[in-house]
Design goal:
The protein is α+β, with helices and mostly antiparallel strands. 30% of the residues lie in helices and 30% in strands. It has 3 helices and 6 strands, in the order H-E-E-E-E-E-E-H-H. The chain has helices at 3-8, 78-93, 104-118; strands at 16-21, 26-34, 38-43, 49-53, 58-61, 66-72. A 6-stranded antiparallel beta sheet has the order 4-3-2-1-6-5, with helices on one face.
């Protein structure tokens, strides 16, 4: 088992992690369930559910032929974690276009996450 795969096994339900697609899309996901073979997660901004392979960290994305992969699982500070939980909850409720607008705290949290995750990549 690679260091990458061992690190992915550290994820728990309720954790956030970062993934990237081959097209360059950045994805912040919330772990919703873990099975013996998969990490089930939801992209918080698009509300797309993904099944990541626990050994490789890869999942099908978008049109189901593109792949994305987990590239950082560095835990977020509690205040950022809480902002993302609120964002996920609000987007999941689907309360119309006005509710989809990012709040200032959410914009700051997304900006923080960009640097946080890129500075803490998983081992290859």
């Amino acid at each position: 088992m690679t260091d990458h795969a061992k690190t992915i096994l550290d994820l728990s339900v309720g954790d956030f992690f970062h993934a990237a697609s081959a097209s360059g899309a950045k994805i912040i996901c919330l772990v919703t369930a873990i099975t013996s073979t998969h990490i089930q997660a939801r992209n918080i901004t698009r509300q797309i559910c993904l099944d990541f392979d626990r050994q490789t960290g890869f999942a099908k994305w978008g049109n189901k032929s593109a792949l994305c992969s987990i590239d950082s699982i560095k835990p977020l500070p509690p205040e950022i974690h809480d902002v993302f939980l609120g964002l996920d909850r609000r987007y999941r409720s689907g309360q119309g276009p006005e509710a989809a607008k990012l709040l200032d705290a959410e914009k700051r949290a997304l900006a923080f996450a960009r640097t946080h995750y890129s500075s803490n990549p998983l081992p290859l």
